[in-house]
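INTERNAL AUDIT FORM
Audit reference: QA-55
Scope: verify that the stored structure record matches its stored sequence.
Auditor: D.O.
Record contents follow.
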Amino acid sequence: MVARTDALIARNGLSYRRAGAGTPLVLVHGYLGGSAQWQAEIARFSDRFDVIAPDLPGYAGSAGLPPAKRIATFGAAVVELLDELGLGQITLLGHSMGGMIVQEIAATHPDRIARLILYGTGPLGAMPDRFEPLDTSRARIRCDGVAQTIRRIGATWFRKGAAAQGFEIVAELGAQATEAAALAGLDAMSDWDGRGALGRLTMPTLVLWGDGDRSYRWPQVETLWQGLPDAVLAVVPGTAHAVHLEKPSLFHALVEDFVGG
């Protein structure tokens, strides 16, 4: 059983979870996610790291905040939290859309990022090989609502679909977002392209990917791996888009090895 970490509220209204002490390790969730998805990681790493996990504007504990329509807006909210907490250099991990956000932060604040982990993500927000076009997801949100859409989309994030361990936390977190926030997130991804900045992200970077990921296919992952100046690649077999929930022990071992234990 993983001990739960209660949410805190920043001055800008952003909800976040924090535990531990030491070098800051910041965990940024993805589209329709939330900080509660990182409970196992907070428990695992808080004995050696100051682990901080925000709820992005419009999602989960920050659902009452105005939706962000640009990746840079999400990034600015995270940086504002880091400033409030007085954090210097950090290790920064981003999953899925969160991976785009941390690429944006690393490009605009490179001196603050000691190590970067790009997990289940890519450098192009339009995701040309995604399991369905972003426009289809927009239409289904408007037709079916957010709660039903996250159950449909979230099932593609696991090899075992809706039967997978971890699926219900994904569905629960996603359902907390408003329709406006869900649509704004799709707009933010559609408009973002980080390929031109890859060469400037010189910090040591781990690119971590599940080999069955249907959101970010291999061409996106390969572009990250080959385009970053100092990147290592970890491909986790038998997983999809939610490696940290599908194979948590292996996910933890890979992250731990990269950050130096």
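Auditor finding: record pair retrieved intact. The chain has a mean pLDDT of 96.
Action required: none
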